[in-house]
Amino acid sequence: MTELDQPTTLTLRSIAPSVYLPAMVYEIGNGATAPVIALTALHLGASPSAAGFMVALLGVGQVLGDIPASAVADRIGDRHAMVLAAGLATVGLLGCFLAPNLLVLGLALLLIGSANSTFYLARQSYLTEVAPVELRARALSTLGGSHRIGLFIGPFVGAAAISLTDLRAAYVVAMVTAVSAGVVLLVVPDVALPAGHPATVRGGVTSRKMLADHRRLFATLGLAILAVGAVRAARQTVLPLWAEHLGLGAERTSLIFGIAGAVDMALFYPAGKLMDRYGRLAVALPSMTILGAAMMALPLTSGAISLTVVAMVMSFGNGIGSGIMMTLGADAAPAVGRIKFLGIWRVLSDSGNAAGPVVMSVVASAATLAIGIVSIGSAGLLAAAALAAWVPRYSRFATPRAMAARRGAG
């Protein structure tokens, strides 16, 4: 019997209360605060560029927190690490709420970013351990989907709170959701490891040794993942910039974002099912090809309708790739020291998320906005080529042929 044919004793429904519910609740808070961080900085006297830097500190904190997060989760366990992360996030959000100056706000945002890295890594590690191989992609893509749903709901909840009081009410919403996520984690137990499923071996492996032992993987497939993260993150930046270039107002731009977000959010489960059935490349290649090509076509749009169409195509490409980075990390991770491996993996993906908008902005400043958008879109096509070359080397579930062969062997 092969890995793909192991009896499945775990279902997505059985892990929803302990995995997807706290992830979605936690992410509602992030969605509520995302639109107000820059505004808070502006109210504290920051310039527009400094306000943008404050927003970037969340990503910086996440990158800086990935390796320490793996050490914490390795030592105290995934669930306890998530509860700790929820507590740290609450402290950071309180700092944002009370911040009298930019220094306090910046430190609070770094703390929230570090807490986010711990929360995300611990859930990914748990799912990688307990989900049967034939369900792995769906389990992880649904985790990505729960994040998307929370981020979609959050701005509406935050806007309602702000309308009743003031701007900083969004941080109160996020504090409530962080505490609520922690309570769910304390009250609802994790599903036990399925019978016969190998457990992660914790301790005994340092991040330095893990990096040295898998340096070829991180230098090849890891760079492809970095590029994927960069293109995906830049998608959130290029849309409002080009909408402003076209002279569209904030209301129409927000509507376009909402429509595109709905397309993205609806595709996480089909993405996971395709990966489990036909292999990882069946989703990874079309995802990055469509996203990259659509982004390159963005400067050809001339109005709200054409921009909406391209935005929906971009979201389709991004949506069908839901969970792909977590799934590839789970495929490549060893059982011994798995969480240390995933910590390094997340450093690469989070670094791409942080670098994508910066690279696009630098190119746009040196040339034009259109050239900046096309350059980051072309990186999506390069990422697709890199995935095609390296995913089969490091994932046993890369292609339809590999999946069929494993089933046939069973």
TrEMBL record:
It comes from Nakamurella panacisegetis. Residues 1-403 form the Major facilitator superfamily (MFS) profile domain. Its main location: membrane. Keywords: Cell membrane, Membrane, Transmembrane, Transmembrane helix, Transport. One of its GO terms (molecular function) is transmembrane transporter activity. This is Predicted arabinose efflux permease, MFS family. The keyword Transmembrane applies. The lineage of its organism: Bacteria, Bacillati, Actinomycetota, Actinomycetes, Nakamurellales. Pfam families: MFS_1 (PF07690). The chain crosses the membrane at residues 50-69, 143-164, 170-196, 217-234, 254-271, 283-316, 358-391. It is a multi-pass membrane protein. The keyword Transmembrane helix applies. It is found in: Cell membrane. InterPro entries: MFS, MFS_dom, MFS_trans_sf, MFS_Transporters. GO terms for cellular component: plasma membrane. Coiled coil: none annotated.
